[in-house]
Write a structure and sequence with these properties.
Elements lengths: L1 H14 L1 H6 E9 L3 E8 L12 E7 L5 H14 L10 E5 L2 E7 L6 H4 L5 H20 L2 E2 L8 E4 L4 E4 L6 E4 L12 E2 L12 E2 L10 H6 L19 H5 L4 H4 E2 L13 H5 L9 E2 L5 H4 L8 H16 L10 H12 L1 H10 L5 E2 L8 H9 L38 H10 L10 H6 L1 H4 L4
Antiparallel strand pairs: 1-2, 2-3, 3-5, 4-5, 6-9, 7-8, 9-10, 11-13, 12-14
Helix pairs in contact: 5-11, 11-15, 12-13
Bound molecules: adenosine-5'-diphosphate and magnesium ion.
Length: 443
């Protein structure tokens, strides 16, 4: 492996001699779908002891990335970076199709190494930093689209944070006046990308393997007939999550064949809906999974909710579904089928499931996953009522329940407001910073 890495570095320096002139490239420090990232230091400082050297992260983009994409990533770094925990760029070098971004380096560990031992104060600082970074990005009308621990680097020793990787970022642009509606924004579609591994997708039409049937089943309903939906036959969650069973059991279209055990010829013939789905499996919000085209910065807020709940539950990855329909089934388990169906209807989609789920109490779930004693939760005794922990109107002072593993109720309340299925009701980064968990208490 070391030899292969050294060969890659030699090859890169050969293709980009300017890089070799300015920097000493030491080793590979990261690899994503679209880049390799190396640790570098300035050559003129070569004699300095390593503690005094200036270190840089040198991101080499794979040559198949669309030039418009690269330009957009660079613009994001230039326009927004260098402040509020958002990565900046020091230098960009190019020769033919070899392009590198030179950025400040931040030492960091894998999220999985510390996800289980962050306490409430550390989590508060971490989430504050993430919200401050997102508030900045969103104030530029940009959706990051790939918020996840691998792109929010955390130097635990020095309490430094950096939001990196604008490779999937998208700019919001206003809808034309005559079609303007809530929310008043539309995505600029990203240029198509030739490199897709099914986990992280760039192009709006990229789909993970086996997603063809999903696209058919998620046919757009021009006028959703939610109220006339026939109650589908019940099925277990396991059945919903089975890839073979999913196309039958979860669908989002308004045809009479919905939930009837197959897709009719008319639906087969309909073009699949197109909406941006760039992002990473397990971090996609309902509006992306439901192929809603008018996505907003709320996409990033959902992903930050997934990061938060990962820490609260000490589980990473938190969601494990490998395709969009299974992911919807996972969300139905957590949020409740009705809440997800209401959101689908509000977004012009019809979600049909073969079994109803009431939704889970986040605090109880996290306690269970951590093996901690379950917190008292009066609301779960109410038949078919959504748990308070997932209620948007949750007020921390209303519940004097004990904390879970030292995390206060307010932390769970924030998670519930970030994992709000309806993107229009989800908290913004600025609002999250005013939330009791982040605005008050602790350091
Ligand atoms: P990709 O688009 O390929 O995912 P990223 O920009 O996310 O590329 O970088 C991939 C990995 O490289 C990151 O997850 C991180 O581990 C490492 N990395 C990126 N930027 C930096 C940086 N400024 N400092 C330290 N490590 C970095
Ligand atoms: Mg990345």
């Amino acid at each position: 492996k070391d030899n292969a890495e050294k060969r890659q570095i030699v090859e890169l320096l050969h293709k980009l001699p300017r890089l070799d002139e300015i920097f000493e490239v030491h080793r590979k420090i990261g690899e994503g779908t679209f880049s390799s990232v190396y640790l570098g230091s300035l050559r003129q400082h070569a004699e300095l002891p390593s503690s005094e050297k200036r270190w840089f992260a040198i991101k080499h983009l794979v040559p198949t990335v669309h030039p418009a994409r690269i330009e957009h990533e660079l613009r994001c770094l230039q326009d927004m970076g260098g402040k509020d925990h958002v990565i900046g760029v020091e230098l960009c070098l190019r020769h033919l199709d070899t392009i590198v971004f030179v950025m400040p380096y931040i030492p960091h560990r894998k999220f999985s190494e510390y996800v289980g031992d962050m306490d409430a104060n550390e989590l508060r600082r971490y989430m504050r930093a993430l919200m401050i970074a997102l508030r900045r990005v969103h104030s530029f009308g940009v959706i990051h689209r790939d918020v996840k621990p691998g792109n929010f680097l955390y130097d635990r020793e020095n309490q430094r944070y950096l939001l990196v990787d604008f490779g999937l970022a998208q700019r919001l642009c206003p809808l034309p006046i005559e079609t303007r509606q809530e929310p008043a924004s539309l995505l600029v579609p990203p240029p198509a990308h030739t490199n897709s591994n099914g986990k992280r997708n760039r192009s709006e039409s990229d789909s993970p393997p086996g997603a063809k049937r999903v696209a058919l089943d998620l046919t757009v309903a021009a006028k959703p007939k939610v109220t006339t939906a026939a109650a589908p036959a019940p099925a277990s969650a396991a059945e919903i999550q089975s890839p073979r069973a999913t196309p039958r059991n979860v669908s989002a279209y308004a045809c009479a064949c919905a939930g009837a055990g197959g897709v009719c010829a008319a639906c087969e013939a309909r073009p699949p809906p197109r909406a941006a789905r760039a992002g990473t499996q397990g971090f996609r919000p309902p509006e992306v999974l439901l192929k809603y085209p008018h996505q907003t910065t709320a996409v990033d807020m959902w992903a930050s909710g997934v990061v938060l709940v990962s820490v609260l539950s000490a589980r990473y990855p938190f969601f494990r579904a490998s395709d969009d329909v299974s992911a919807l089934a996972e969300l139905a388990d957590l949020l409740g089928t009705q809440a997800l169906q209401r959101t689908a209807a509000a977004l012009g989609r019809r979600l049909v499931t073969s079994s109803g789920r009431r939704g889970l109490c986040l605090r109880k779930l996290c306690a269970w996953l951590r093996g901690a004693p379950p917190p008292p939760c009066t609301h779960s005794r109410l038949p078919r009522a959504p748990c308070l922990c997932l209620d948007g109107n949750f007020k921390p002072q209303e519940v004097r329940a004990g904390s879970v593993a030292g995390f206060p109720d307010a932390a769970f309340a924030l998670a519930a407001r970030l994992l709000e299925p309806d993107p229009r009701a989800r908290l913004s980064a600025a609002e999250a910073l005013r939330h009791p968990f982040l605005a008050t208490g602790g350091e």
